[in-house]
Design brief:
about 85% helix, about 180 residues, mainly alpha
């Protein structure tokens, strides 16, 4: 069986669902446009989602602590779980402060990521696509620097913009995947 035959047989079950995949992409795309039209609300939604995930992770840590046999590890897991739950609840209590912290962390992470990409690019072999990696690193670094330079003023809209752009690109990706799966006459 050739590679193209394997790919065709793998994609066959998805072909019947191509309409649903396009519909999913449309939902993502619409959600992204709505988020882009109200980036402050999208930021609040992002912070709320982070808070929910922190509470869920905290509860999971507490459950894990109850299953640990040694006393020291039990206390450590329990403390970690309680801290996650408290941090999640504080996120609900003061979403603007949480947005400020998350925006600062995002900017710092992008700066670090950009620097690492640039350093890695200069360690790539000649003839490879190191120039594109440098460009990606410079763009990531610049975005991080802009976010940190405008912090905390931009905290109300940065996370919302990132969410909106992610939703839009995800929607376009699903739509193109679904359309690519449609059988050709």
């Amino acid at each position: 069986m050739s590679v193209s035959d394997q790919t065709a047989s793998t994609a066959e079950p998805l072909r019947a669902k191509s309409g649903w995949i396009v519909a999913l992409g449309a939902v993502y795309l619409i959600a992204g446009v709505v988020a882009l039209s109200s980036v402050a609300m999208a930021t609040v939604v992002s912070v709320f989602f982070v808070g929910v995930m922190m509470v869920v992770a905290g509860v999971a840590e507490v459950i894990n602590a109850l299953q640990v046999k040694s006393w020291g590890k039990f206390v450590l897991w329990l403390l970690l779980g309680v801290l996650y739950v408290v941090a999640g609840i504080l996120t609900f209590e003061n979403p603007l402060f949480a947005a400020k912290l998350l925006t600062l962390l995002l900017g710092a992470s992008l700066i670090a990521s950009g620097l690492v990409k640039i350093l890695l690019a200069f360690n790539m072999k000649a003839g490879s696509s190191w120039g594109i990696v440098v460009l990606a690193g410079v763009i990531t670094l610049l975005v991080g620097l802009v976010i940190v330079a405008q912090w905390p003023v931009n905290s109300l809209y940065i996370l919302g913009i990132f969410l909106a752009v992610d939703l839009i690109f995800t929607g376009v990706g699903w739509i193109s995947t679904g359309l690519g799966l449609k059988p050709r006459p």
